Amino acid sequence: MSAGADGTAGSPRRAAVLGKPIGHSLSPVLHRAAYAALGLDDWRYDRFEADEAALPAFLGRLDASWAGLSLTMPLKRAVIPLLDGISDTAASVEAVNTVVFTGGGRRTGENTDIPGIVEALRERGVERVGRAAVLGAGATASSALAALSRICSGEVTAYVRSESRAAEMRGWGERLGVAVTTADWDAAAEAFDAPLVVATTPAGATDHLAGAVPEHPGTLFDVLYEPWPTRLAAAWSARGGAVVGGLDLLVHQAVLQVELMTGRAPAPLAAMRAAGEAALAARSTREPAAG
Questions:
Q1: Interatomic CA distance for residues 34 and 19, integer angstroms
Q2: For a 10 Å CB count at each end of the chain, is N or C smaller?
């Protein structure tokens, strides 16, 4: 017999990931692996494609069997007005990637990306750094800054493509209590002098930097997980540097989601990671990389 969200035996429960596009999401693989390892045989985890316009109606159709939702783009900010409250962590970056349904139908928003980054780094031995660099700007970069506010004691340099992005990153730094300076993207190779580099850019954006990895690099956190390794991550590893990948982040944030939605802790990190690795390996052998 399985447990309900409060950790007690209960009726079948449901959860899902929402976003657009959503077909590529590994969240169902990770959460279903967790349910199997925890013996939650009557829990279901699905995926649904939904954009901002469809979100209110989707939420309105959910019944008491629903325990929670995982949210990806473009819903992380659009959901906030539809919730009864959000955590301080989610409020710090105005982004919710997790909705938990509690007693009385209350909807609470959380952000597990930020602590997920911290946990993924801690797992690789990075608990405190004196300074760091961030490649890119946007939603993932703001979450990276929020995570760095917990582990970085000094300056963070953000390498961006425009002054508007630079101003945005400096604004996030002020809000999060992080000393942020900005530099032009053309100078991004200078980031590699930092003991921790967080790459938040889309696939291919850092490929040209692979040849600039120094002889003794620090730690690279590349938030991509497909394709993997990125050219930058491969070059970093070849130089002997520590690399944290997007799958590490995906698994650690999903672990926290499972714990929030099911009330069961600790979630089975190893089983979830193994399932994610197997799913990515199957994708790479099933079909050639698409453009």
A1: 21
A2: C
Structure tokens at 114: 């930020």
Residue type, 192: F
pLDDT band at 138 (very low <50, low <70, confident <90, very high): confident
H or E stretch including 98? Answer: strand 98-102
The yes-or-no answer on residue 20 being catalytic is no
| Catalytic one of 13, 14, 31, 76 | 76
Q: How many C-beta atoms lie closer than 10 Å to residue 11's C-beta?
A: 9
Cβ-based neighbours of 62, under 8 Å, separated by 6 or more: 101
User: According to the model, what pLDDT value does residue 10 have?
Assistant: 60
In the predicted structure, residue 64 carries a pLDDT above the cut 50: yes
Hey, is 287 helix, strand or coil? coil
pLDDT surpasses 50 at 7? no
Cα 101 from Cα 177, distance rounded (Å): 31
Is cis: bond before 81, omega within 30 of 0? no
Angle at 199 between CA 165 and CA 73, to 5 degrees: 70
Q: Which of 35, 74, 38, 40 is nearest to 55 (CA)?
A: 74
Name which of 248, 214, 255 is nearest 229 in CA terms. Answer: 248
Nearest-Å Rg of the Cα atoms of the chain is: 19
Confidence tier at 3 by pLDDT (50, 70, 90)? very low
